[in-house]
């Protein structure tokens, strides 16, 4: 009995249960840490993918901005072409006005000829009436002669009178015949003059039509011929200057960024820029030998600045700076052997930008020198 009581009072061993609980807790914590690591890894992957997508979208946006700038430049070029074609159209309209005035003069001459013809026709009608009157008188006289001849045998006095009247009538008939022949000759001359006037009017109308057709064909041929030489000029420049980011073709113009030729705020062309312009001059000299003498071409040099105003003693505004830079390029091209009468210089300041905006990239694109082969 006493032994049983002592066994029942032996202390209970809880250590194995505690170890099991602790192991279970550790496993739960490890599982949670693994879940957290996996979630963190997935989140990192998602964020990196999103960053890549954002970078791709940014690149696409930059590409679209470049394309927009090119489209704007093309629009400006098309506007310039439209202005040039408008001038050509106005010149053609002026020539057409001159031709119209010439046609109107010819029409007035034709109207005057028509009036002359009408007057001549009236004169011919009057002469015809005179001829008819004279013919009727001739017939009356001949009838009188016949009557007098039939009754003139009655008396000698009557016979003598008859002879007198007969001779007189014959003389009048001869005179009337002469007048009739003269009137017929006048009518023939009037008809010949009328036909000559009509033929002259037809020839003048044909000449005016042919002149207009030749004028239109000549204008179209000159424009196409100049476009062919311009394409060859730009193609050779592209091959010679190579693929440089600061030298490019925009529409029908060859564009040099100002940094290629000038320092900031100056009009002095640097050595590297002189080398580039020497290549341009050599290429244009080769092309100029092939251009026909009757094609009145010119190389237009345009200076452009950004929208940052400049106010110095030498350059009160961007107008003066852009014009001075264009003139500096013209002087170098003349030194390289290009004829001065084939060069045009113009300054546009900041008023014809390639790209709208106030950031440095847009301003850098807008600071440029443009070369354009055009017709004067």
Would you kindly provide a written description of the structure presented here, covering whatever features stand out?
With 376 residues, the chain is of the alpha+beta class. Among the domains are: 93-221, Helix Hairpins (Orthogonal Bundle), CATH 1.10.287; 243-375, 2-Layer Sandwich (60s Ribosomal Protein L30, Chain: A). The protein is built from seven helices and five strands, in the order H-H-H-E-E-H-H-E-H-E-H-E. The protein has helices at 2-8, 15-151, 156-241, 258-261, 271-290, 318-335, 360-366; strands at 247-250, 253-257, 297-304, 343-347, 368-375. It has a five-stranded mixed β-sheet with strand order 1-2-5-3-4. Helix 6 links the parallel strand 3 (297-304) and strand 4. Helix 2 (15-151) packs antiparallel against helix 3 (156-241) and helix 3 (156-241) runs antiparallel to helix 5 (271-290). The chain is elongated. Residues 124-207 form a coiled coil. This is OmpA-like domain-containing protein. InterPro entries: Bact_OuterMem_StrucFunc, OmpA-like, OmpA-like_sf. The chain crosses the membrane at residues 21-43. Keywords: Coiled coil, Membrane, Transmembrane, Transmembrane helix.
Unreliable stretches (pLDDT < 50, length at least 5) are none
Q: What would the average pLDDT be, to the nearest integer?
A: 77
Record the strand order, biggest sheet. 1-2-5-3-4
* Helix content, binned percent: over 70%
What is the end-to-end distance?
A: 136 Å
Task: Output the number of helix runs.
Answer: 7
Largest sheet: 5 strands, mixed
Rounded radius of gyration (Å):
53 Å
Beta strands, count: 5
What is the CATH topology assignment of the domain at 243-375?
60s Ribosomal Protein L30, Chain: A
Q: Give the C-level CATH assignment of the domain at 243-375.
A: Alpha Beta
The CATH homologous superfamily of the domain at 243-375 is named OmpA-like domain
Topology as H/E string? HHHEEHHEHEHE
CATH architectural label of the domain at 243-375: 2-Layer Sandwich
Instruction: Indicate the overall shape.
Output: elongated
Proportion of residues in β-strands: 5-15%
């Amino acid at each position: 009995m006493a032994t049983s009581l002592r066994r029942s009072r032996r202390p209970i061993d809880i250590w194995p249960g505690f170890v099991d609980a602790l192991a279970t807790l550790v496993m739960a914590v490890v599982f949670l840490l693994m879940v957290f690591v996996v979630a963190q890894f997935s989140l990192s992957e998602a964020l990196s993918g999103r960053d890549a997508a954002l970078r791709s979208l940014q690149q696409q946006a930059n590409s679209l901005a470049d394309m927009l700038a090119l489209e704007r430049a093309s629009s400006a070029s098309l506007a310039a072409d439209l202005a040039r074609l408008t001038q050509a159209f106005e010149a053609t309209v002026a020539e057409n006005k001159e031709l119209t005035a010439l046609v109107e003069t010819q029409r007035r001459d034709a109207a005057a000829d028509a009036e002359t013809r009408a007057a001549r026709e009236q004169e011919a009608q009057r002469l015809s009436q005179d001829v008819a009157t004279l013919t009727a008188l001739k017939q009356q006289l001949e009838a009188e002669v016949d009557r007098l001849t039939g009754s003139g045998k009655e008396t000698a006095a009557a016979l003598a009178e008859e002879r007198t009247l007969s001779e007189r009538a014959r003389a009048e008939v001869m005179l009337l015949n002469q007048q009739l022949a003269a009137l017929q000759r006048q009518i023939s001359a009037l008809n010949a003059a009328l036909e000559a006037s009509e033929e002259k009017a037809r020839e003048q109308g044909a000449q005016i039509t042919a002149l207009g057709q030749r004028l239109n064909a000549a204008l179209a041929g000159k424009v196409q011929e100049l476009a062919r030489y311009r394409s060859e000029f730009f193609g050779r420049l592209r091959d010679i200057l190579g693929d440089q980011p600061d030298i490019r073709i925009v529409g029908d113009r060859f564009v040099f960024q100002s940094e290629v030729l000038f320092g900031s705020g100056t009009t002095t062309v640097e050595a590297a820029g002189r080398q580039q312009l020497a290549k341009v001059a050599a290429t244009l000299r080769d092309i100029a030998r092939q251009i026909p003498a009757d094609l009145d071409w010119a190389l237009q040099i345009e200076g452009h600045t950004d929208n940052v105003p400049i106010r110095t003693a030498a350059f009160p505004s961007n107008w003066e700076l852009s014009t001075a830079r264009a003139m500096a390029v013209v002087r170098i091209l003349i030194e390289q052997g290009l004829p001065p009468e084939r060069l045009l210089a113009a300054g546009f300041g900041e008023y014809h930008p390639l790209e709208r905006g106030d950031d440095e990239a847009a301003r850098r694109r807008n600071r440029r020198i443009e070369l354009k082969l055009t017709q004067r």
